[in-house]
Amino acid sequence: MEKYLLVGLGNPGAKYAGTRHNIGFDILDVLAEKKSAVWQTERYGDITTIKLKGRTVILLKPSTFMNLSGKAVRYWQEKENISIENTLVIVDDVALPLGLLRMKKKGSDAGHNGISHIIEILQTNQFPRLRVGIGNDFAKGYQVQYVLGRWEKAEIEALRPKVDKAVQMCISFVMMGIERTMNEFNEKQAPPPKTNDKEQENKKGPE
Predict the structure, then answer these.
(1) DSSP 89-106
(2) Are 121 and 70 spatial neighbours (Cβ–Cβ below 8 Å)?
């Protein structure tokens, strides 16, 4: 029976619940609830298992704190004998607009401490990840406060359908594979609105 590991990145404890950095936890919570799965506290994290048409899918919310996420990923990969191709990491991304969803086969850490530690521990960046845009509405030097801050009410409303879509993408990853999931679900970042030359002239400030 083929096994999969879905890892939602976040920080454990009530202090961090509902923060932007914990969107990976939130998505797995919705998936677990959808499948009536019950979380158990195990080594390196909270764990539950669901079945998807004969496939065993382990959901993991690491308890190691974000910057040590690699320990939990490696432990559960080895314990359950799950390949890196069948390991999907769900992660927040300030480089993407709020709610924009992108699945990738591999990539750099893009400045994310959780992904950085996973790469360091696994000694490879060749693992799938689902990037969830959380926006970047913060002043220079305030990224930490932003990602560890709680969602605004308007953000929660905007994110609700996106979380549901992220859950669909996780299921699709298991059922259909990463290529078909990327082709069907990946969203593109909207280009900036075009302006004509006259508008551009009117918007110019003193040089």
Answers:
(1) EEEEETTS-TT-EEEES-
(2) yes
The whole-model pTM stands at 0.89
* Sequence-distant (≥ 6) Cβ neighbours of residue 26 within 8 angstroms: 8, 10, 163
How confident is the model over 152-188, as pLDDT tens digits?
999 999 999 999 999 999 999 999 999 999 999 998 8
Show the domains of the chain with their CATH numbers: 3-203 (3.40.50.1470)
Give the model's pLDDT for residue 27.
Answer: 98
If you search the block for the tokens 């002043």, which residue do you land on?
Answer: 139
Q: Are 72 and 63 in contact (CB under 8 A)?
A: yes
* Share of residues in the chain with pLDDT > 90 (%): 84
Q: Which residues contact 77 (CB under 8 A, 6 or more apart)?
A: 5, 83, 84, 87, 122
Residue found under tokens 């158990």: 40
Tokens of 31: 């998936």
Determine the Cα–Cα distance for residues 36 and 67; give it in Å rounded to an integer. Answer: 30
Catalytic residue numbers?
Answer: 21
Question: Using CA atoms, how far apart are residues 28 and 63, in angstroms rounded to an integer?
Answer: 14
